[in-house]
Amino acid sequence: MIEALSFSFMQNAIISSLFVSVACGIVGALIVVNRMVFIAGGIAHSAYGGLGLAFFLGFSPLLGVFGFCLALSFLLAYLTYQNNKRIDSIIGAIWAFGMAFGIVLIDLTPGYSVDLMSYLFGSILSVSTSDIWLISSVSLTILALVIIFYKEIVAVSFDIEFAKLKGVYVKFFYTLLIVITALCIVATIRVVGLILVIALLTIPPYIAEKFCSKLFSMMFFSTLLSITFSIIGLILAFYFNLTSGATIILVASLAFLVLEIYTRVKK
């Protein structure tokens, strides 16, 4: 491991994985508690449209995904608030639109030669200093928002009717949850990619939920698990020449399976 740390790209990978783990630990816990996994998946896959737009117009892919995901998060919040009966259809339609929009724009991009696989499945070993600045800024923004509005977020997450009675602006905080989910997806793209991001958002908090009784402790434990999975995945990817994003998710998935098997056997 000491040998690996002598390389600058490995140092960047570890730093970015730490920031991403904080974002995924916090947002993942909120997604699991609020049962918003399908919404997160819809944003993650429709973000492909942001990639296509960035390649077509010739600017940074991460900025394209950032703007596109942010716009979609507001649209999703507007369409799904108090419309739970058709939420799966709405998310499916937006998911399909984002993917189709991105594919068409990439087809129309002249002389397209960008390695799209690194954005679909992650390429943490190629994270640059500018990527780290973006990832850290997004992660710290998410952390600050959750700290500032923690009480309101807890109220909305566990009892919306009680939150309304206490004067909490539920619609605003519902929108905020979806917006920070979109921000987290943007921060995570370079680590595990658009296809695998949903696993890093759900597996650590799912495991943490089994050992925690409070949302704060669930966020903290989920963050520690994300860091552990990311570091182990990075080490394995470095020494065995594997795809880093897929290796991180594989480590998390194996931990999930071992826990499930252990729980069932114990019962």
Q: What's the CATH H-level homologous superfamily?
A: ABC transporter involved in vitamin B12 uptake, BtuC
SSE succession: HHHHHHHHHHHHH
Number of strands: 0
Mean pLDDT: 85
CATH class category: Mainly Alpha
CATH fold node name? ABC transporter involved in vitamin B12 uptake, BtuC
The structure class reads mainly alpha
Assigned CATH architecture: Orthogonal Bundle
Determine the N-to-C terminus distance: 38 Å
Describe this structure in words.
The chain has 267 residues and is mostly helical. It has one domain (7-266): ABC transporter involved in vitamin B12 uptake, BtuC. 83% of the residues lie in helices and 0% in strands. It contains 13 helices and no strands. The longest helix is centred in the C-terminal third of the chain and has 40 residues, at 170-209. The chain is globular and about 55 Å long. The protein starts with a helix and ends with a helix. The model has no long low-confidence stretch (mean pLDDT 85).
